[in-house]
Amino acid sequence: MLDPEAIRARILGALPGSEVNVQDTTGTGDHFEASVVSPAFAGKSMVQQHKLVYASVQDWLGTGELHALALKTYTPEQWKKLGPR
């Protein structure tokens, strides 16, 4: 069973300098949602951004330990435009 911090650490390892928030959406330790704000996303399509994140957890997806990871990805500029939450 995974926890949000383990997934967050993997994403940060692949995308240093990012802001990452991960939540367990079902309480079962295999369905998560992550929002990632990263300068590495600049100039990349949403699909390319998601591929960068998924690459960091691909082994867990392959074994089924991580069943689902819903993503919301933003460049720092996009995040600023969204304003306070």
Automatic annotation (TrEMBL):
Species this protein is from: Hyalangium minutum
InterPro entries recorded: BolA, BolA-like_sf, BolA/IbaG_stress_morph_reg
Name this protein carries in UniProt: YrbA protein
Family: Belongs to the BolA/IbaG family.
Database matches in Pfam families: BolA
